[in-house]
Every structure is written in structure tokens, then in C-alpha cells.
User: Which sequence fits this backbone?
């Protein structure tokens, strides 16, 4: 996959195969192309060249495949004068075909009590909760979470992590971009590291620790990054 | 698609700008019909004001609406919907609500004070102008991400079609006055939807006698059903071309 914004090359030949039933964490320095990569999968950003396949089928210029994806953006942007209820109802209206509706997060976050608040009046954290609830609402096969816990309070972050692990057990593919190594260690199985639009490494967490002989993930990653070697 | 239009319309009605626009048009029309003696005179003044204000309000409102709906569109593109569907829903939502405002604000007074073919042409022209300028506004909005720039481009477009273009035409007519320009003027008229609408309404009033040879030519062309059909076809083209261009750009852009 290749993508550049004008002269700035964001993705320079990223090629990975992601298996279902795993939680994969995408890490890398700021501006490494993490968000761009997830937006490409969603079709929000169109790659210059390359292809994205889900279950062996190319998804470029298609739209129906998105019914299998739940997306939680880094910064949730919502129409300011719509109420929480309207946003959720509208998305449900669009995804009428979804067989299973999973309202667990709406319940756990107590969003029903705020249904009549306007999106514009919500705090950043509450918006994140709405985003999370929307991402999990339709029981999608693939979850793309862009820095999901940034802005969430510790209790809400715990709820979200619990939910991620629960979904993983159901055999779903979960992609998380994050900078918080301890958090990644808790939920993720594999780590995909992007640096300057290239894949630096893509390993399971246990392999990483074994290779670097470190017990903590953050140290293991730091070690590899400092050595600057590409595995 | 209807679902999304529903939410777009809901959003527009909340802002109350369209309601204010309706009242403004209503006051304008009723005032002009009561001011002038004959209904024809009222229609003529109404035509001139409609051709100045409707494009301006349509293009500015549609541009600001497009930029304000950015979050809404971002939310939708990650959902399983075609992008062109999102775009066309936005377009129809804006143009239909502005058209409804125009029908109430101008259509009803015309029906009451000056019913007839001329009035019908005036209303049709106004509706086409609305659709055309909303399409131009969307084109301006997809060209740039910067809201201020987008509104700037939109205002330039209005300025061009409503004011500058006539100046250019007059300059050409004046400079090449020694040559037969009837067909050239006809082509020049078709290149500006505002002028095309104006000519169509004027020819239905009795003022066309004052327009000389060109007027006679216009009369012979726009007087026939064939000519009117062509004129409306050109107006449809004026809607479709910017709309399809901007839809294409919208589908291919990154959000």
C-alpha cells in the first residue's frame, strides 16, 4: 500500500497480512502513518497504489464491506447539533441489515442517561465513549480502534479493554493504534510497528520479549527502535 | 438515500436560515406586487431582484452548509454507504429546501397576483437557478478544504455570473457592433444561466419589442416550443455539469 499527501509520503509500501481472532496493535512514532493506514482500510483515504483485501476480496471503491467493520476514530467528530440518540439511531438506520445489536457498551457507559444531550456539548471523553459504543454496536468482524483509551478515564478505559478481550475471544480481528505500551501488553497479541511509512517489524509480543531478553514490552520495543534494525 | 436526506433536511430546518429566506422572499414579492400598478411591472421588478438575490443566497448558504456538514459526512463515510449517495443526499437536501423556500416565497405570491405563463417561467427559472447555484457551491466546496477560500470562490462565481458576465457581454457587443452578432449573443446568453433565465422571462413580457434585431431573433427562437425546450435543456446541463464534476471530486478525495 502506498499513499502520499502531496510531497509527503505517508505509506511507502506497507504490506501485511492480518489474521482473525487476534488483537494487533499498530505502534510507531507520531506521523508514522498509523491513522492513515486505518483510514485506508476504511476507504476514508484512498491509497495511491496497492490493494486492500478482506477475506480475499479487494475492497477498494466498494462500500458494503464496511458493514463488517467497526471504527472508533482518534478524535470523534460529530454533527454538533445532533443528540446522542439521533446519532445512534441514524447509524442504526443505515446499518439496518446488522443481525446482532450489541448495546453492552451503551449500558456500561450509561449513555442512555445522556441520550438527549447534544454532541456539541459533550466532553472529549464522552464523545470517545459514544465512538466506542458505535464501533461495537453492530457486532462487526473487524474492529479498528484509533487510540481508543486516549481521553477516557481509567474506569472507562478498563471497561473498553475488557470489551476488546471479550470480542477477541469471539474470533474477531481487532486493530488498535496506541502509544501506551502497558495497555498494549494487556490486550494485544501482536505488534505491527510502522516507522516513516514502512513496516519496521511485525511480531508477537512473546517473540519480541524473547528476542530482546526483556520482560517488559516497553523496554523491548525501545531496544529495537534504538538499534534501528528491521526484522 | 432517503434516510440521509431526512437527516440533512432536519439539520437545515434547525438552523432557521431557510425560514428567514422564505419570509424575505415572501415580503419581497408581496411588496413588489403592491408597489407597481400592473402585475407585469411587478413581475419585471421581481425578476430582477430574484435573479440577483436567489443565486447569492443559494451559493453562500450551500457553501457554508457543506463545510458545516463535514463532521456529518466524516461520520457517514466510515459506514457502509456509497460516497456518491452521501454527496447526492447532501445536494438534494440543500437544493430541495431552498426550492421549497422559493416556491412558498415567490411561487405563491405570483400565483395570487400575476398568474399566467410569464409567472410560471419566472418560478421555473428561479428553481433552476437554485439548483444550479447549489451545484456550483458544492463544486467550490470540494475544490478546497479551507472554508474561507471555499466561500471566496463561491462569491467570485456569483459575482461573475450576476455582474461581471453582463459587463463582458456589453463590451463584446460594443466592440464588435459593426458585425452581425445575433447568434453570438445567443451563444453568450446560453453560457450564463442567469441571463438565460432572464431572457426567457423577458420574452414573455411585452418588453421584447425594445430589444431590436436580437430581440426579434430571441423572440423567434424562444417563442417556439422547440426553442424553449432547448433553453431548458441548457439549464439542465448547467445543473448536471457542476454536480457531476463535484461528485467525482468528492468520491476521489481523502477525508
Assistant:
Amino acid at each position: 500500500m502506498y499513499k502520499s499527501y502531496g510531497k509527503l509520503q505517508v505509506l511507502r509500501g506497507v504490506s501485511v497480512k492480518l489474521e482473525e481472532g487476534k488483537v494487533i496493535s499498530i505502534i510507531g512514532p507520531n506521523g508514522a502513518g498509523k491513522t492513515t493506514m486505518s483510514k485506508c482500510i476504511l476507504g476514508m483515504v484512498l491509497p495511491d497504489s496497492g490493494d486492500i483485501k478482506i477475506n480475499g476480496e479487494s475492497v477498494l471503491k466498494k462500500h458494503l464491506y464496511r458493514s463488517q467493520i467497526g471504527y472508533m476514530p482518534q478524535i470523534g467528530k460529530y454533527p454538533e447539533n445532533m443528540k446522542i440518540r439521533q446519532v445512534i439511531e441514524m447509524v442504526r438506520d443505515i446499518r439496518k441489515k446488522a443481525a446482532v445489536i450489541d448495546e453492552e457498551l451503551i449500558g456500561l457507559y450509561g449513555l442512555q442517561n445522556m441520550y438527549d444531550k447534544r454532541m456539541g456539548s459533550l466532553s472529549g471523553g464522552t464523545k470517545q465513549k459514544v465512538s466506542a459504543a458505535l464501533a461495537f454496536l453492530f457486532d462487526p468482524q473487524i474492529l479498528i480502534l484509533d487510540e481508543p483509551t486516549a481521553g477516557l478515564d481509567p474506569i472507562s478505559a478498563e471497561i473498553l479493554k475488557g470489551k476488546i478481550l471479550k470480542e477477541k475471544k469471539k474470533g474477531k480481528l481487532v486493530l488498535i493504534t496506541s502509544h501506551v505500551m502497558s495497555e498494549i501488553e494487556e490486550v494485544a497479541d501482536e505488534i505491527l510497528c510502522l516507522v516513516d511509512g514502512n513496516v519496521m517489524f511485525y511480531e508477537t509480543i512473546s517473540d519480541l520479549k524473547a528476542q530482546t531478553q526483556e520482560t517488559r514490552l516497553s523496554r523491548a520495543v525501545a531496544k529495537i527502535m534504538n538499534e534501528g534494525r528491521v526484522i | 438515500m432517503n434516510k440521509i436526506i431526512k437527516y440533512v433536511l432536519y439539520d437545515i430546518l434547525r438552523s432557521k436560515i431557510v425560514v428567514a429566506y422564505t419570509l424575505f422572499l415572501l415580503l419581497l414579492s408581496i411588496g413588489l406586487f403592491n408597489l407597481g400598478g400592473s402585475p407585469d411591472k411587478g413581475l419585471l421588478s421581481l425578476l430582477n431582484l430574484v435573479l440577483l438575490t436567489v443565486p447569492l443566497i443559494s451559493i453562500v448558504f450551500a457553501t457554508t452548509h457543506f463545510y458545516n456538514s463535514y463532521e456529518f459526512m466524516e461520520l457517514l463515510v466510515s459506514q457502509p454507504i456509497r460516497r456518491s449517495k452521501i454527496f447526492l443526499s447532501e445536494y438534494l437536501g440543500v437544493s430541495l429546501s431552498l426550492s421549497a423556500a422559493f416556491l412558498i416565497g415567490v411561487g405563491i405570491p405570483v400565483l395570487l397576483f400575476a398568474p399566467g405563463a410569464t409567472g410560471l417561467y419566472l418560478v421555473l427559472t428561479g428553481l433552476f437557478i437554485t439548483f444550479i447555484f447549489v451545484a456550483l457551491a458544492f463544486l467550490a466546496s470540494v475544490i478546497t478544504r479551507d472554508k474561507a477560500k471555499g466561500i471566496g470562490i463561491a462569491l467570485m462565481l456569483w459575482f461573475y455570473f450576476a455582474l461581471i458576465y453582463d459587463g463582458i457581454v456589453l463590451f463584446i457587443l460594443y466592440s464588435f457592433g459593426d458585425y452581425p452578432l445575433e447568434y453570438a449573443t445567443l451563444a453568450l446568453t446560453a453560457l450564463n444561466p442567469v441571463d438565460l433565465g432572464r431572457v426567457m422571462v423577458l420574452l414573455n413580457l411585452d418588453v421584447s419589442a425594445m430589444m431590436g434585431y436580437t430581440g426579434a431573433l430571441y423572440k423567434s427562437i424562444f417563442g417556439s416550443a422547440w426553442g424553449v425546450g432547448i433553453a431548458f435543456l441548457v439549464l439542465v446541463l448547467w445543473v448536471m455539469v457542476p454536480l457531476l464534476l463535484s461528485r467525482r471530486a468528492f468520491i476521489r478525495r481523502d477525508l
Q: What stands out?
A: The mean pLDDT of chain B is 88. The two ends of chain B are 20 Å apart (CA to CA). Chain B is about 85% helix and 0% strand. The longest helix of chain B spans residues 83-113.
